[in-house]
Specification:
By secondary structure, the protein is an alpha/beta fold. The chain contains twelve helices and 19 strands. It is globular, with a radius of gyration of 23 Å. Bound molecules: zinc ion. Zinc ion binds next to loops.
Amino acid sequence: MKRLILILSLTFTICAGAQQTGSSPVQVTVIRAGALIDGKASAPRRDQVIVIRGDHIESVADAANAKIPAGATVIDLSKQTVLPGLIDSHTHIFLQGEDPAHGGYDANILTAPLAMRAARATVSARRALEQGFTTLRDVETEGAGYGDVGIKQAIEAGYIPGPRLLVVTRAISTTGGYPLEGYAPELEMPKGVQIVDGPVEARKAAREQLDHGADWIKVYMTHRSWVGKNGELVSQPTLTVEELRAIVDETHGWGRKVACHAYGGIGLQRALDGGCDSIEHGLDLSDAVIAQMLKQGTWYVPTLSVYFTDWAAADTPAGQRDRLRASLHEVSFRKALKAGVKIVFGTDMGGIPWTESIAQEFSRMVEFGMQPMDAIQSATSRAAVMLDMEGKIGVVAPGAFADIVAVSADPLRDIKVLERVEFVMKDGKVVRDK
Ligand SMILES: [Zn+2]
């Protein structure tokens, strides 16, 4: 009985302790912004005061009219341009730009223990955050199972620093539709995705992934690509429309969306006919495809940069394919931009080593005709709409999470300054200052 009383009193003390922390005063922070690109408005505003209470933005006002709450911590960014935390909607924290000289993609799956891959993923997540990317839609773990759900939980619980993550878990393709491949047919090789054949298996895979924490479902609608007889880009289609519809129907039923990797041709047509919410890469968009995307409201995440580097030698079939892919990609991007397709910033980081700049994609978008403000909105408010987080992320406005970055020059004049983010705040906490 004595022991019971002791336990009871201990429990009481712990509860009381927890209650005390719960009622501690909420941190109030004020940011003085020299210029504010709020993520949504078409022009910047000068001399703004942003009041942050806890993890949220409480108010944004002209410095002349702003009231600084008593006891607030003031952060002076009056010489800088302040923007919302950036959003990369196509990353792979479980890839590290694997060097073919060191075994490439296959070695990562065949030799790295999962704990090793998780450890490296935590570094990728931290790098993204330090570069000002406070939200990632991470589009599959490449053979690391549900590891992305674990990393997301570790970030949310405060064990490791990282962006807010929207994860897809394993992703889905068909037999013959994903590596590892090229091994003796007698060997049962692990795959970088969950393989399905037939609508029943497709729906079951979507159910499993959603059940285990997928925020989105990712489907590969094309796989290999090569230069065809008439010099055209051919992309091997994977899922049938029937298989994809089963996945889309299931995922939409859960209130979630489907991202589809698709280059062009039959696979891309099936992706649209099957109801994909976002087209990833979209290297080869015909006028008819663009018209269908506009009609269906399909998002386009072009991931340009990754296709413009690391080409194979020009005199090889792979090298010719790489060059054709890039040239078609530029034309597709320009056409989609002109037609008013909803373009969202994505990089395929992980395919690119995480030591490189994520924001390099902005320069490529601007080079291909996008206005700098449009490019910034593709990585802020427009991405937030695609991610069903409008008003919560991608904007510096009352009610949004206090995800805020700053740069030392005007990104509307030189978009490259976004590659040198100096200040990063996530959820009201400063994670980088210079
Ligand atoms: Zn990717």
